[in-house]
Amino acid sequence: MIEFVMEWAIRSSILIGCGALLLGASRIRDASLRLAAWTALLTGSMAIPFVGAALPTVPMVWAREAARPVYVETPVRAAAPGAEVPENGGVQPAQDGPKVFDYRSAAALVYAAIAGVLLLRVCIGLALSFRLRGASRATDLDGVRESESVVSPVTIGVVRPVTVLPMDWREWDATKLTAVLAHERSHVERWDPAVQLLSAIHRALLWISPLSWMLDRWIVRAAEEASDDAAVAATEDRAAYAEVLLQFVTKKVEPVGIGMARYGGVEKRIDRVLDGTGFSRGVARWSAAAIVALACPLAYLAAAASPQKERGMQFPALPLPVPAAPPAPVPAPVQIAQAQTPPPRPATPEPLPEFDAVSIKPLGPVGEGGGRGGAPSGPSVCRPLRYTAGMVSGAATALRLIQDGYGLSPHQISGGPDWVRDERFCIEAKSAGPAEQDQLKIMLRTMLADRFKLVVRHETKEMPVYVMTVAKKGLLRELKPGEPTTGGITVQDLAGYEFRTQVDQSVAPKVLVDRNTTQGFAAILSEFSLELDRPVVDKTGLQGNYMFVMRWTDDDFRGDLERQFGLRLEAQKAPLPTVVIERMEKPSPN
């Protein structure tokens, strides 16, 4: 929670700060225009969490990170002959260290306590205003009530605001009554009580941001100045209104609503009324349109900007063979002079594994009924892509090969020409001997770089995802020990296994059959681009292997998933590794 609040506070401060700089640079003196601008910034700040979750992010590259070198794992040398090896392999048991104070939880508690107190104050103010309105009496003036509980005019109410006057208002002269009513009705017409209630809630939720307090003060100040201008325009006598205002600001300030004496020091406020050369005329349509046109893009950038570093090409670390322990040193005979041996050459990393033979043939564009991996939609000599021990063969798009090589979903790959996604190739790649899935993926990346001239850039982006959690326990059937599993392999990878994932889309409802972990099942769901518009991240915490036999329709895929397995998909945002295609060429057929 504290991370969410901190990010919201930072984005809100950026939005409010930029808006304040724009207002300062434009030198806007009209109080109504300034109030409209502050209200737009307040609305944008409150909408930041919703805009950030609903709209796509805007990547903001602020620095370029140098390409990382190829790291080689440090080999562990075998023990010398005759040396004693501990039973635990030389690994020291973990020691229980002192308990570390949980600063994150403590910060969350402090934030929640202070925010709760501030929100309680807002609720108490609302309750007092409702009580004051109920105890007041109606007058013969429209929207005006009177009460013995107030000594100065005050406007209360959110949905239907009214003005409450002290009991002696009938003894006022015409100029004083005109000024007071013009001032308070100006608040009512602009819905100032609702705006200031929203500002108080915003200040309570983001109390850690100084700019949220300043924004609340600016809103109250601009509202009072705009109402002062309305009173001056109604009386056309600045001196008379300054005298009326002076009578109220020296009295007790009402604890609820919007009172004439609520804002500002006496001297500055009176000086502004007397020395002003004009008064606010309200906000014209073109002015409101200009404020919205400036506030909307600024609010969107503040909510959706995703700062990140641009990274260069990275390669996985490759293990070196474990060398044998050197023999025990033998004392050399004493010599008068001994030639100095050259220092040993540094070990060089082994080259990336690659296929022994590769055949690539173009198949043409993807058909409308093509499979998920780019398989042909009609009869073809090239069957769907599959992985067997030491061999990758079948029809696939270049995008499908990149997905398998880097272990990403389609949503995590961007850039490149259109043919990467639209054209199919018949691939037949064989290794010199049996190879595991991880080795085949590295070979696939090597083939893409060699034959397709693929150059990519790795980035980490905050992007929309579905977080998969357990909504209802007991619906998943856990496999017994010894039952075969797929080991988390994707849909297309399972074609060469005895028990493989099957997706039948020719009938309704569609059927998915799989034995997998929840992590592997989330990877499979990430490829359902027709049913899900974002990757799936497993947060179930389940570690077993389960049977997934799912039937669904296109109308409610997520609902079918929750009803059949008790797994819920919640739309959130999360940082994920991504690949940007910077260069790619069609391979020459062979």
Plain-language structure description:
This protein is of the alpha/beta class and 590 residues long. The chain has helices spanning 2-26, 31-54, 103-135, 174-189, 192-205, 210-235, 238-249, 266-275, 285-304, 398-406, 419-422, 437-451, 518-525, 557-565; strands at residues 58-64, 72-73, 137-138, 144-147, 154-156, 162-166, 258-259, 305-310, 318-319, 357-365, 386-388, 391-397, 413-415, 423-430, 455-470, 477-478, 502-504, 510-517, 536-538, 545-552, 567-583. It has a five-stranded mixed sheet, sandwiched between helices. Strands 10-14-12-11 form a four-stranded antiparallel sheet. A hairpin with a 5-residue loop joins strand 3 and strand 4. The radius of gyration is 35 Å and the shape is elongated. Mean pLDDT is 76; it is low at 65-83, 85-97, 309-325, 334-339, 368-380, 487-502 and 504-508.
